[in-house]
Structures are given as structure tokens and as C-alpha cells.
Amino acid sequence: xxxxxxxxxxxxxxxxxxxxxxHRLGLETAEDLLTHYPRRYEDRHEFPAFPHEESDVPVxxxxxxxxxxVRRFGGWKKIFEATLQEPNANALSEPLVCRWFNLHYxxxxxxxxxxxxxxxxxxxxxxxxxxxxxxxxxxxxxxxISIHFRRITPxxxxxxxxxxxxxxxxxxxxxNELSDAxxxxxxxxxxxxxxxxxxxxxIHFPEDWESLSAAREHLVLSxxxxxxxxxxxxxxxxxxxxxxxxxxxxxxxxxxxxSLSFELTDAQRRVIAEIQRDLATNxxxxxxxxxxxxxGKTVVAIAAILLAIEAGCQAAFMAPTQILAEQHYAVLxxxxxxxxxxxxxxxGARHEExxxxxxxxxxxxxxxxGTHALLYETVSFSNLGLVVIDEQHKFGVAQxxxxxxxxxxxxxxxxxxxxxxxxxxxxVYGDLDVSVIDEMPRNRGKIITAVRNExxxxxxxxxxxTQLEGGRQIYVIYPLIDESExxxxxxxxxxxxxxxxxxxxxxxxxxxxxxxxxxxxxxxERFRSGETQVLISTTVIEVGVDVANATVMLIExxxxxxxxxxxxxxxxxxxxxxxxxxxxxxxxxxKETATKLAVLEKTVxxxxxxxxxxxxxxxxxxxxxxxxGLPALKIGNLKSDAQxxxxxxxxxxxxxAADPCLELIENQRFRRLIVxxxxxxxxxxx
Length: 686
Ligand code: ADP
Ligand code: MG
Known about the structure:
Number of strands: 23
Mean pLDDT: 85
Strand order of the largest sheet: 13-12-14-11-15-16-10-17
CATH superfamily of the largest domain: P-loop containing nucleotide triphosphate hydrolases
Strand content: 15-25%
Shape: globular
CATH topology of the largest domain: Rossmann fold
Bound molecules: adenosine-5'-diphosphate, magnesium ion
CATH class of the largest domain: Alpha Beta
Largest sheet: 8 strands, mixed
Helix content: 25-40%
């Protein structure tokens, strides 16, 4: 009898090479292997007849190998072909030619007379029906047929040295020899349907599609529940930390609001009230402020800061880039120095380049603004009460924790302009309270987005000129996606010369990450003041930069950017009362690019863009594991299983609400679950 926790290495019937292959997949224990869930299933009760036409849907076929051959092409390259005949072939039957390129070892695996199951897309090549690089299995003897055939058959992600058949046989035997000791069900009774043991059996070898889906539901719920327990416990943990109330009477805030040239939107008012309530209690605040680009999050952050410093403590304001930190510093000086608030800025770049002192501003500041430098330097706060983190998606949870793990715990407000689909918020930001600014300031001009082919550049230039002549300013985004990508300075310079010529006599400047920071700052300043009309830039201007008179953004090679990033970039315009234009230039004619870019033509709503982005990229990318600090999912799908996530979440929340420290004996098992999850999280990050 095998125990679920048993090491696979202890099972003497698994040959050593196979064991090593299992280890390569990260599978060490019986449980690891049993939760190595099938990637998909094939219904092998009955195989369809061989096709006569090609199809985009992969099919699973079974036939006998009647011929094999190796052909050469392109000199040294080889192609291996196996021709299959249908079992009950008749005069109308067509053979199927399976082809593999450059896979020499297949010659040793496939031979005439064997029965083969293949899975792939049938294609018409000349007159023959072919399948290129199908997944395949050789049927060796009829005895094993009950495992691999005449059933709904599981297909796994396999690895070298471990064929589908071998992996399936090992799992089959493991399930048969598994001890009858109950496999602990992690689910609370209101979620559980069936038990874990039979769910695991069924997920590998289902009797029918209905029981498969019930088993899957059980396992997805367990996985989601474990994740939500971790999230809920992080939340509970932060709520039992010793905090302090950091909320002044609000006179300073009133003064500030009166000094503004605009009225707050209702949404801004509402979220300020939410923050004010959090600040006033001595439970540490952990709040996420979500609001589309340009919705006015900075003012809300300032409101929080003013309430905190009126209560006699310091605030830290952390931004992900130098440019943004400098901009916040400038904005805060303009708005807050008249109110006698003392400000200082600390950024790493100033330090490294040694151009300016490490610290600028007041020696005994109320507010310290900075980049990551705030995390690593020994910034000595005497009485840190509030931490505001802008564009939080650029930081990881670990970094957030680093700034906030002090006693007494400061209040924390994180802000993001990268909306994520609503169903994801409860997971990715599940340990935070969420405030949403769902309304734009009224004075905003519309943003019109248009996709244009590079060949239309002439017309586009004409349009740019009219805008410049009308007194507006322009961003041209240079197609360099990542600042860490090696910047070809020569190419950038050539590009820059080209643009100067094209838009002569208007004044252009070039901005990119390699320009030393005082220079960068001056370039931004000249653009802000209107001295320069055109800023040719890489994506360093992506987040937060705010110049109201800039109304046109031209993005070159738009297809190279993700939707969310394009939306962020576009958020730099439409900030004043003028109508704004975002032009997405692309020479890529593919349907995929066209559909992707069309999303931006259709909507300016960040949430809609996020949903679409999710469709294009899949959930994996969105939920960067290290960033969210959550374990990777083995079976659940954040998008299609959102409903199950909701149920798991409310179950986890109610357990922790009833017993926040998990003190009761019966809750020890939940505590264990959380510890296990933490373990998975950290092993994922490292
Ligand atoms: P984001 O949410 O993208 O960080 P910002 O805070 O930079 O946006 O605000 C964008 C611009 O809108 C700033 O110039 C800011 O002063 C202005 N703004 C903020 N709130 C309002 C409002 N209620 N009415 C008009 N303008 C506003
Ligand atoms: Mg901002």
C-alpha cells in the first residue's frame, strides 16, 4: 500500500531512468504525481474514420502502420514518414501520412505492423492527407488496453524519457496501490461535493464526462480555497498588527482643496472618505486605489498625506521611476509648500551619478518622495505613519512588505492605473481593501484612437503639422519596448534626425533611459513648459507623466506593445480640455495584430482593455507569480473558473472572520494548509 506522502524513489517498480524523468518534472512524492493533472483527454471509446479533408480541429485517429520511410530534404535534413491504414479499410478509405522532421529517434520507435494512435490536424499536401508532428502512441499489446484505450484517456504534459503510455501506466498503478487511508479533504463542508480521493482517481481515469467535471470542480475548489485561505490569512495578519490612528482633523486638507483650481469628482470624494475612515482607526490600512490613467489619483494620495501629517506623522510616497518621482516632487512642492509642508526627495540615480546630493529638500521632512531607493537606503523616518505606493504593479509584494514591516505598522495606500479584470482583483489584490475611481474629471477632451499602416505616414505627418500649428504638443513613442533592451544609440539618433527633418521648424527632443538623470529632468521640463513641441521618447514616459497641452501620441511599431501598455501610453494624452489623438502605426498586416489594436480604437475604458488583454495573453502572464506572491495554479483557471473562485473566497473569508488567529483546534488543519501554501509561494519566487 502506498501512502500519499510517500517518495516515488521508494517505489521499487519505477525504473531509475523513469524516476529521474519524473524528478525533472518536479515530481517527488506520490501526491506530486497524482496532482500532475492531465492536460487534456481523448475519447478513445471509438475512433472516427480517417478524414478526406483537412481541418483546423485536431482529431484522434487509430490505424496500422503499413509503410515507413526516411527522406532527405535541404541537404542534411531528414523527414520521417509513417503511413497509416484504417483498421476496417474499404475501397473509399484514404491512408494517412504522418510526418516528423528531423526526429531521428522515431525510426526506432515506429515500425510496420504496429498499431498507432495519433492526434493532430489533418492537412492536405498535394493529394495526400498528412499530419505533421502528431502526438502519437504505439499500442504494444492488447492486455494494457484497459488503461490506454476504450475509455476517456488522459493526456499529460510529458517530458523526455517519459512517454504518455509510461506516465499513464505509472499513475494507474499508483492509484491502484494507494492506501485506503482517507486522503484529507481540505474543503469545508459547504464547498465539498464528493471526496478528494475519488476526485483524484476520476480526474485521471474518468468513467464519463459528467463525473470528470464533478471531480474537476472538487479539485479546483480545493486549490482555490487553499489560495484564498492564504490571502485571507495575510489579510487577517495585517489586521492584528499593532497600528495607530493617523488622521488629523482635516483643516489642512480643506485648505488644500480650496487652493485647487478644480472641483474633485464625486469618485475622488468618495475614495478620500474611505481612506479617511481607515486612517482614523488603529487597525493598519491596507488599501488599493484603482483608477484609470488620468482619473486623478495623485490628488487623492495628497489628501491622505495631508491627513496623516496633520496627525503629526511622516508620509512616504514611492514611485517606480525617477521621472515620476521627480514629477511628484514638483507637483507636491507647487501644491504643498504654500501650506508649509516640508518635502524631500531621495532617488538612487541621484546617488549613483553623484551629480546632485543624495537628498534634496527639507532636512526634517513631513513627506519623503522617492523611488526604490526608499526601500534600500537607510532612510530614517522618525515617525512614519503613511506609505503611498504609486503604480504598485511595478513593485512586488516583497518590496511593499519591506517598506511597511515596521512597528507600529504604518497605513498603506497602493495605487494602480493598470486595471485588472474585476474577477482577478479578488485574487491578485485579495488581501487589500479596494477603492475605485470610476469617473474621469469632467474637463477632459476626448481621445480618438486610430490604427494606421506605416505606408500612410505621409498623411499622418500632415495631421501632426496641423496640430503643432494649432499650438499643441506631440509625443512620438520610439519602438523600444524595454529600457533594459540594449539601446542602439545610433538608431535612436538617426530616428531623431529624421523626425526633426519631418517636423521642421518645430522643436524636437529625444528622451530615453540612458540619458543621465539631470538631463532627463531638463528635457521633461522644457517639454512641460512648451519650449519643445515634440518629445521623441521610449516608454520611459509610460507611467504618470502629465502634460496637458500634449494632445497627440504617435506610437511606432504599435504591434510590439501589449494592450495594457498601449493603454498606459495613451493615458499621457487627453489630459487637458483639447481633443486628443492616439495614432498607432504598424506595418504588421496580420489578423491577430489588427484585432488586438482594434480594441483600442473601440474603447478608452481601462477595464475593457484589461479584459481584452486577458483574452489575448491568457491569465498566466497577468498573474505574475513573483509579483502577486501567490502559488501557481495546477488545475484551476482564473478566468473560466471565476465563479468557483468566488465561492472559495467567501468560504475562506468566513472561516477567518469567525476565528482570525485560527486558534481553535479544528482549525489547525487550516493553519497547516496556509503554511503549505506559503511554502509553495516562496519556492515559486526563488
Ligand atoms: P493619475 O490617476 O493617472 O495618476 P493624475 O493624478 O496625474 O492622474 O491626474 C491627472 C491630471 O488631472 C492632473 O493634472 C491633475 O491635476 C488633474 N486632476 C485631478 N483631479 C481633477 C479633477 N477633479 N478635475 C480636474 N482635473 C483634475
Ligand atoms: Mg499617476
